[in-house]
Design a protein that fits this description.
Elements (H helix, E strand, L loop, with lengths): L6 E5 L4 H11 L4 E6 L2 H13 L3 E6 L5 H15 L4 E4 L14 H26 L6 E6 L12 H23 L5 E8 L20 H14 L3 E4 L1 H10 L4 H9 L7
Parallel strand pairs: 1-2, 1-4, 2-3, 4-5, 5-6, 6-7
The structure holds NADP nicotinamide-adenine-dinucleotide phosphate.
The site of NADP nicotinamide-adenine-dinucleotide phosphate has 30 residues, from helix 1 and helix 4.
């Protein structure tokens, strides 16, 4: 996709990868619509975007609220007539432990990472089907979506569910001959955001927020189905999908905490 002059929604853009991606896209004369709960931070991001020559609308709200997502998509369509690109980025990644987790913390992660994606996906898909120009829904997934990872059980489940849902959506678009809508999942390795700090998980091959935004833009341009980056952990992840589970378990447990 040529990402100049586009109408682009980014959810969860008040910090981290969403913020860095908004700033990178703002240098390409786009019309950005950004969302998050922290109003003050979101407005600061909007100011940065405008200073770089793009327009920016902000919507403060909780992405786990279906009505908020419906309202955001309706407002974009009312103002601009369409959505060219959506980057569904909202997510949390708290360390967890399947032996001690509570139902509430597990479901909270699912609500934040999976339900919030679905809340936006549904009105976006409904809208995009009516459009006649090329458009794309992308989801900020993770390399953790391809297999279970010790101390990340809640998180891997949410990202795995999202990946499979969108993989199916892609198949169905093809099956029903809908060619103008693309679906992409984005799979960063470790990115140096505040959310990632002090979570006790080893951060192999960690990259900066700005570098992650470069990779995101590269993937948007190429429209690769799964944008897996950086190469240092990406190749391990790709290989991990094919090696026997016993070997994979041994590798993944190598750096896990010894006590729970
Ligand atoms: N950092 C990494 O190493 C890494 C690696 C792979 C994938 N990812 C994924 O990248 C995405 C961004 O993570 P990040 O590391 O950049 O963390 P971050 O800085 O904490 O960003 C998360 C964003 O999501 C928003 N958000 C969270 N819960 C929300 C809710 N209920 N409603 C609305 N907005 C909400 C936050 O805004 P408010 O708090 O203001 O609402 C914030 O803007 C996540 O999906 C994460 O899983 C991160």
């Amino acid at each position: 996709m040529e990402i100049k002059g586009k109408i682009i929604l980014i959810t969860g853009a008040s910090s981290g990868i969403g913020h860095a991606t908004a700033v990178a896209l703002s240098k390409l004369n786009n019309k950005l619509i950004i969302t998050a709960r922290r109003a003050e931070l979101l407005e600061q991001v909007a100011e940065e975007v405008r200073a770089n020559g793009s327009t920016c609308d902000t919507f403060v709200g909780d992405a786990t609220d279906e009505a908020h997502a419906e309202e955001v998509v309706s407002a974009i369509v009312e103002r601009y007539g369409c959505v060219d690109l959506a980057i569904l980025n909202v997510g949390i990644g708290p360390p967890s432990n399947t032996l001690t987790a509570t139902a509430e913390t597990i479901k909270f992660c699912m609500r934040t990472n999976y339900d919030s994606m679905i809340n936006f996906y549904c009105p976006l898909m409904r809208q995009m089907k009516t459009q006649d120009t090329h458009c794309m829904i992308t989801h900020m997934n993770s390399q953790a979506s391809f297999f279970g990872i010790p101390m990340q059980g809640d998180y891997t489940a949410t990202k795995g569910a999202a990946r499979l849902f969108l993989e199916t959506a892609r198949m169905e678009l093809k099956h029903f001959g809908i060619k103008h809508i693309a679906i992409q999942t984005i799979h960063p390795g470790f990115v140096d955001t505040l959310a990632c700090k002090d979570d006790g998980i080893p951060e192999m091959g960690i990259i900066s927020e700005e570098k992650s935004a470069d990779y995101v833009l590269k993937g948007l341009r190429s429209e690769v189905r799964e944008n897996i980056f950086p190469a240092s952990t990406g190749w391990g992840t790709r290989l991990g999908r094919f090696i026997p589970n016993g070997i994979l378990t041994k590798i993944l447990l190598g750096s896990a905490a010894k006590e729970y």
